[in-house]
Amino acid sequence: MLVAGRREYVGCLAGISSAGSAASLRLTSRGVKVRKQLDSKWERMKRHFDCRASAVSTDMIRKYVIECQKKGMANASINRDLSALKKAFSLAYKSTPRKIAAMPVFPKKLDENARHGFIEQAEFDKLYSHAEGLWFKTMLLLGYTFGFRRGELLAMKVEQFSSVERTIRLWRGATKNKRARHVLIEDEGLYQLVRACCEGKKTNEPLLKRENTLSAPIVDSRESWYRACVRAGLGKFVCLECKKDVTETEDGWHCEKCGNDLIKHQVTYDGAIFHDLRRSAVRNMVCRGVSEKVAMEISGHLTRSVFDRYDITADSDLREAAKKIAAGRETSVYSPNVGVQNGVQRQSGNA
After folding, report:
1. Strand pairing partners for 95?
2. Mean pLDDT over residues 101-130, rounded?
């Protein structure tokens, strides 16, 4: 399948086909990252792009976008597919010797409906009360306090916590943007939770792990998250067949409309996601007086676009703006019972 020159197949650009591999791309960390991204997406993309790279055109890419939209795929998922494909083409074009003669023009990214979910303090307190296990309670509180990503928390080791300095350090390479950062723990309750998670563990063991396991890391925390959110009223389980809410039972779920007892693969979750804690943490920091620069250092955001994307503005700034807006009038002449015409007050009631 791997043909030299302009007959290179799309599936071989980043070594994702079984018949060929681009060894030169594997030598760079960027090439490895692109290859991993395409590996996970190629199964649904290969039916459309299983052709020579030179045959890929802008019209072909647009056709793929239309097909994905008809299947109900989110714009964000389509954008990620095209982004990974574009990176593969770019690496192949920039390699020496070039694996493709020219790059196709990719259409403009689709508009994404960014989530704006926030979890208020009262909602989080209720969610925390329904969390099961020391590890999960600690995970929730760390995420809501510092805005740690779920992957960063699950990969955290005991040695990254210093009980003397009361700090947690995220190592370079273990974060999404590959930058190290650290936070200080002032809240006594959170400090005691983290200490309790470290007790009896070796330094290279996961900080967060289930109490009934020896040293196995937690691979997926979504089931614990789903159940806690449902019990706290922040989410629900839905029947995949009739799309109606289901009730939880001892052995699984029950759908009133279908009249069936359901198991795990017959229901889906709809509600708050763990990343809502990260958004809420950033908003809480800013609203409590933490500067945007420091909030970005704590959460690990590289640009301030998060504040524009999530409409995060401190209440103190809004109050200050409201005072300045109203400062143009010494006293207000407006009231529910008073009207103003041509600068002269008049009573709005019947004389």
Report:
1. none
2. 85
Cβ(208)–Cβ(139) below 8 Å: yes
Query: Does the pLDDT value for residue 137 go beyond 90?
Result: yes
- The pLDDT value given to residue 24: 37
Task: Round to whole Å and give the CA distance between 35 and 24.
Answer: 12
Kindly state the helix (H) or strand (E) to which residue 170 belongs, with its residue range. strand 167-170
More confident residue, 22 or 124: 124
167-170/338-341 β-pairing: unpaired
Of the segments 116-120, 163-167, 346-350, which one has the largest average pLDDT value?
163-167
Which of 232, 248, 245, 231 lies closest to 119 in space, CA to CA? Answer: 232
CA distances from 270 to 75, 105, 126 (A): 18, 37, 18
Quickly state the pLDDT bin for 13 (edges 50, 70, 90).
low
How many Cβ atoms are within 10 Å of 199's Cβ, its own excluded? 8
Integer Cα distance of 50 and 58 in angstroms? 15
Distances (CA, A) of 314 to 282, 286, 301: 11, 6, 18
Helix residue ranges, H only, 104-149 = 121-129, 134-146
Angle between helices 134-146 and 222-232 (to 10 degrees): 80
For residue 48, what are its two tokens? 């459309």
Q: Percent of the chain having pLDDT more than 70? A: 77
Concatenate the DSSP letters of all residues of 173-239 into one string.
TSSTTS--EEEE---HHHHHHHHHHHTT--TTSBSS--TTSSSPPP---HHHHHHHHHHHTSEEEEE
Q: Does the pLDDT at position 337 exceed 80?
A: no
| Burial (CB count within 10 angstroms: exposed 0-12, middle 13-18, buried 19+), residue 234 | buried
Question: Could you give the CA distance from residue 45 to residue 85 in angstroms, rounded to a whole number?
Answer: 9
